Amino acid sequence: MAARLNLEEIGRRAGVSRSTVSRVVNGEPNVSAKTKRRVEAVIAETGYRPHAAARSLASRQTGVIGLVIPSEAGTLFNDPYFGRLILGASDAMNGLDMTLALFVFGDEIDESAIISRVVNPGLVDGVIVTATRMADPLIDHLRDADMPFVVIGRPDNLSAVFSVDADNRGGARSAALHFAQLGRQRPALIAPPSNTSAGVDRRSGFLDGLAEAGLSIGGRIREGDWTEAAGRRAMAELLERRPDAVFVGSDRMAVGALQAIREADLRCPEDVAVVSFDGIIPADMVVPRLTSVAQPVQEVGERAVWLLKSVLDGQLTSAESVVFPTELVIRETCGAALVGGERDRAS
Amino acid sequence: MAARLNLEEIGRRAGVSRSTVSRVVNGEPNVSAKTKRRVEAVIAETGYRPHAAARSLASRQTGVIGLVIPSEAGTLFNDPYFGRLILGASDAMNGLDMTLALFVFGDEIDESAIISRVVNPGLVDGVIVTATRMADPLIDHLRDADMPFVVIGRPDNLSAVFSVDADNRGGARSAALHFAQLGRQRPALIAPPSNTSAGVDRRSGFLDGLAEAGLSIGGRIREGDWTEAAGRRAMAELLERRPDAVFVGSDRMAVGALQAIREADLRCPEDVAVVSFDGIIPADMVVPRLTSVAQPVQEVGERAVWLLKSVLDGQLTSAESVVFPTELVIRETCGAALVGGERDRAS
DNA sequence: CTAAGTTCTGGGAGCGCTCCCAAAGGAGCT
DNA sequence: AGCTCCTTTGGGAGCGCTCCCAGAACTTAG
Q1: What are residue A271's phi and psi, to 5 degrees?
Q2: Which terminus of chain B is more solvent-facing, meaning fewer CB atoms within 10 Å of its CB: N or C?
Q3: Which residues in chain A have Cβ-Cβ distances shorter than 8 Å to B84?
């Protein structure tokens, strides 16, 4: 007997038409105050809620944005980076009254399944792609399917792409200059994977900074896959070459790197100074406290959502790239305090 | 000219009806091999993808499950716990070819907006609720709206609820017994918030274990909000009361607690032994290595999805609770190695 | 060759909404 | 009162799919 609760039924009970109820629900103008009150009363009384799928079908937009995260072997996703990013994106979505769909894939099989799900019309309006690999196949698929998207990172396979990124090059460069300023002579680098734009940029930014300062890195370069274990391994290897200042491409790897320094019975920052990238690990978490190039991860996520939203609203025609500045946050591992307590803040 | 790509259009091009195309797309039987081949060829050629919203509307299910996470002031979400949980849930969803929608709310305003979005019909088929507070209002709303849900934790406001939880009591109890076995005399507790079921259970489990072992805790109890900072503060306070063994209710708080021990110029484990709960921080991350009651977070997330899926499929009628066992993983902070190198594994 | 059974195919109805146009109602002016 | 103009309301059409039943086509057996 209880008819299904839909616009028609609410209209029937309030003595108006489907259309009028729709107008009230969507807060459109041109509804008389009296009618509006009556309809709202019925809605409150019945607990009516509009049907999202029907809306999506009729209006051709879902109000859902997808966030795609690769998680190779599940390790990547443990990085606090993603928590922050999700938080930023999620905040922005809440503000826009939209919904966040999360797509995490662990391997190629997942990936292709997820791609085919993501590009389905009527599921998400657009997609934010993170941890973009160089020449990412995902991007080509999205483009083929005419699915609007924003990339977090610096995509390389096509120019006409909307993207949000932190200034990885500039941040890494400032780390190099900081080492030079502190008088370190034998810099080394633990770079993030070079199949990611962040890896490429942090590496080249650091090397540029060294060149600028007249320092040479010799063979003191290793690469790590973002994890603590990789940072530890890479630092253990590097220590054989007696570096006195190591730039580690992520906070997580830096935690492992510090561990390796301890295990080699060396002191940080006295023997080996460390600067990392991310600025995301709580300051108290590790001893000595980590000097790190901080990137505004949450803002990046937030901004990616806003950018995608403007794309969806058709407000943007030509590709746009947003780059957030980074900030070198000086704590203990860089050894700045050792050379006379100067307190630098480079950007 | 280019007609919209839908079932009808594919049918037209393949010389069959909408219904037949639908059968092919959904892999239903009773389609002749020849027809099937023809239709599949057209689909491949056109790049047709079914419209998710239309499907949802017609079939009355969306294939989307919502995961609701409160993130008070954004701090909570930084806990690696949620990364793991999401990863587990996400894996399970991929396996079921379903989509995960994430709802993170930071305050009451967000919360009510999110609740009203979540309970909308046609958006999600069901919801997984995490970090459940005692007497959680969210649960009442879901129930009112007839939205199927599974709770992670131990809900208390109603009995007929599907839930997945770790054995918080048992795990905490095993920590107490471990301290007793190692001959510690002055146990203390840094408990998680007592407005969560995990907080209540870890506290009572630890106290039960102490009672069993004939130990008394005196006034050596503090409460912390899951963060490193709270752990540090709580430990600093507790140290005035000279505890020799502290059970810390989460890994993150334990990291802060270890820091406080260092700052008080005390040694862990010699002066103060520490056992934490979660077993989620990478073993290398902290020195000395953390002894922790490990809970299988990823499995919890995975299982919650499966459980919700069976509920949605109507395979389960009466409420079901799944409890995962925990495991005390002995490393360095408990000081087990000090008393003769015994290597315990209690469950 | 026919009847009965099985497999395959087509299309009507409907999911609950938005979009849009037409018509009704009301206000303001001459 | 009559006209115009603006506000408010109603309902047809359609979004792309699933569900379901009826009928066509094909099998098999007698």
Answers
A1: -85, -45
A2: N
A3: 78
